[in-house]
Amino acid sequence: MPVSDTVVRRLHEILLQVADIRGQIERAPKQIKASETKAQQARDSVAACKDAIKKSRMEADRKQLQQRQYEAKLYEWQGKLNGASNNREYQAVKDQLAADTQANSVLSDEIFEILESIDSLQSKLVGLEGELKTIEEDASKMQAKIRERVVLLHGELARFEGELKQAEGDLPEDFAAVYQPLVKTRGEESFAPLDDRSCGGCNTGLPPRVVDQLRQGHPIPCSSCGRWLYRPE
Ligand SMILES: [Zn+2]
User: Fold this and answer.
1) Distance 204 CA to ligand 1 centre (A)
2) What's the number of domains the chain is made of?
3) Does 149 map to a domain?
4) What is the pLDDT of residues 4-62, one digit of tens each?
5) Given a cut of 80, is residue 204 above it in pLDDT?
6) How far is the CA of 184 from the centre of ligand 1 (A)?
7) How far is the CA of 10 from the centre of ligand 1 (A)?
8) Ligand 1 center to residue 141 CA distance, Å?
9) Any alpha helices (H) in the chain, and if so which ranges?
10) What is the extent of the structural domain holding 83?
11) Ligand 1 center to 162 CA (angstroms)
């Protein structure tokens, strides 16, 4: 008894469903991994910003200490200036005092800049921490949703695999002998619907004799790609 195209069509539908569900199940861990990677990147950004703040604070502390040393020195020069015994000594101390005053002023500007950069890093940190919170919440919601979905998909997969087994068991014997090795290597690519006058799998045009046979409901393999063709619904 030749196989009917209703049977082949249904078989192909089930094979496509099974492949689709398996694909979704396989993609799930990758989707979870991707959301974890995104959260980790956000955590890294927060850590890097905190580190930059810490380094800037250390730099500001170091320069502030240096500034106090300058101030002590300026005080000392001032004392020496008052106690200068001659003009030459007075001028030399005055030059030193001017140079150190200038250096101290440069240092003050540098400290001011660092403190400003700490301010802007701190507001950046607030933003990054907000983003991280959102990303982590979204990731955990999404992961829970994916895990739930995978449970459902396993249920659907079991149902379609049961249907597949049933449909395979009902195949006429001579077609089953062709089908088994074919599906083993090509899975859901074992079949394709007729697409107008072409193979729906490889798009090759089919001879009129083959098209007629298919239109009468008799499945036949495509001579080009080997997929079994059937009449679409
Ligand atoms: Zn083909």
Assistant:
1) 6
2) 1
3) yes
4) 999 999 999 999 999 999 999 999 999 999 999 999 999 999 999 999 999 999 999 99
5) yes
6) 18
7) 19
8) 44
9) 5-82, 87-169, 173-186, 208-215
10) 22-157
11) 28
The answer to the question of residue 180 being in a domain is no
Distance between CA atoms of residues 179 and 194, nearest Å: 18
Residue 174 lies in a domain: no
Please give the Cα distance from 191 to 182 (Å, whole number).
9
At 72 the three-state DSSP class reads helix
> Cα(194) to centroid of ligand 1, in Å?
9
78-124: per-residue pLDDT in tens? 999 888 889 999 999 999 999 999 999 999 999 999 999 999 999 99
Are 220 and 214 contacting, i.e. CB atoms less than 8 angstroms apart?
yes
Would residue 121 count as lying in a domain? yes
- Banded pLDDT at 131 (limits 50, 70, 90): very high
CATH of the domain at 58: 1.10.287.1490
